[in-house]
Please model this.
Amino acid sequence: MECPLLKTCNFFQDKMENMPATAGIMKKRYCLKDNSKCARFMVASTLGREKVPADLFPNQHDKAENLINNNG
Model:
């Protein structure tokens, strides 16, 4: 199932534009399959999109959990 935030997620437009192969792999895994595993989606759905750090990668689950636990 496609992530509802995919079309407006700044991460792939800003951080991954120079790494298309890596971006494709991450998009397939986190945006097109199971967005509940995406660190960015975890923070956005728990704390709000404004709390998602610009430099948070989709695979940084530990960082997302720390943000959620310290801001929730």
Notes: Residues 20-71 form one domain. Helices lie at 10-14, 20-31, 39-47, 61-71.
